[in-house]
Amino acid sequence: MLQFYDVCKTYPNGTVALNKASATISKGEFVFIVGPSGAGKSTLVRLIYREELPTSGYVFVNGANLSRLKPRAIPYLRRNIGIVFQDYKLLPRQTTHENVAFAMRVIGATPRDIARRVPATLDLVGLSDKADAYPDELSGGEQQRAALARAIVNRPLIVLADEPTGNLDPVTSWGIVQLLLEINRGGTTVVMATHAKTIVDSVRRRVIALDRGCIVRDKQRSDYGDLGGGERAWAQGLSASSSGKP
Questions:
Q1: pLDDT at 13
Q2: pLDDT exceeds 60 at position 243
Q3: CA 116 – CA 204 distance, rounded (Å)
Q4: Nearest 5 degrees, angle CA 224-CA 214-CA 6?
Q5: DSSP secondary structure string, 49-70?
Q6: Which residues contact 80 (CB under 8 A, 6 or more apart)?
Q7: 122 φ, ψ to 5°?
Q8: pLDDT at 246 exceeding the cut of 70
Q9: What is the pLDDT of residue 225?
Q10: pLDDT surpasses 90 at 229
Q11: How many whole angstroms separate alpha carbon 233 and alpha carbon 243?
Q12: Whole-model pTM?
């Protein structure tokens, strides 16, 4: 489903966001990407939906090498990927229903399909009574649920959630995670980048930990962990080795 082979990403200012990152995520997995700020979590997510390209190495989504993907093929790639952002990114002058329907219109869905699927998706995320509300009339949790509805309305194979609970209180955050778990139980692959230690420790799914651009831990049914001691030393050693430093 998702494969990373020795992926490096260095930005023009010299910042190394990823350093020889390799991992495979199978269909139907729920994976947390964790690590401190600047560890490379968001970069890893952006590579999956081809917002960024690796400096070196390879990223594959459903067997397609994203570095070789032609620009006209990118929209088709993204039809199979739903994205949930920390800051929601809802269209401010459109209602909840219209925001979710927009995701279907851009892929050419018929009015009949939109009329059938949007209400069902809003019901799934608990927003049936907010269909006609505008984003500024919604709470933060409701806006994030609307963003989640938009991400899943086209029934994508993959849902990417980049810090989806970062602006939410603990109770609301847990509700968003419960929705992601429900979506995952339906067979959708979910990749969630997060700082939310309590959530990761409670859910105990696969955890890929990043530190300074390196994958320093990749364990099934794991917790958030602590980048201290051996893991941090291992990451520093890998970074020095990769850069040719003694």
A1: 95
A2: no
A3: 35
A4: 130
A5: TTSS--SEEEEEETTEEGGG--
A6: 61, 62, 156, 157, 158
A7: -65, -35
A8: no
A9: 84
A10: no
A11: 15
A12: 0.89
Q: Half-sphere exposure of residue 31, counting CA atoms within 13 Å on the CB side?
A: 24
Give the DSSP letter of residue 165.
T
pLDDT of amino acid 227: 54
Query: Rounded to an integer, what is the distance from CA 10 to the centroid of its chain?
Result: 20
What is d(CA 109, CA 118) in angstroms, rounded to the nearest whole number? 11
Listed in sequence order, the residues at least 6 apart from 122 whose beta carbon sits closer than 8 Å to its beta carbon are: 96, 97, 100, 128, 130, 131, 149
Give the residue with greater pLDDT, 242 vs 123: 123
Determine the average pLDDT of the residues in 60-71. Answer: 95
**What is the secondary structure of 119-153 as a DSSP string?**
HHHHHHTT-GGGTT--GGGS-HHHHHHHHHHHHHT
Residue tagged 């799914």 (tokens): 205
For residue 193, give every residue at least 6 positions away whose Cβ sits within 8 Å of its Cβ, in sequence order, or none.
Answer: 32, 33, 34, 41, 42, 44, 45, 161, 162, 163
Whether the Cβ atoms of residue 45 and residue 160 lie closer than 8 Å to each other: yes
Q: What is the CA radius of gyration of the chain?
A: 18
Residue recorded with tokens 């890998």: 238
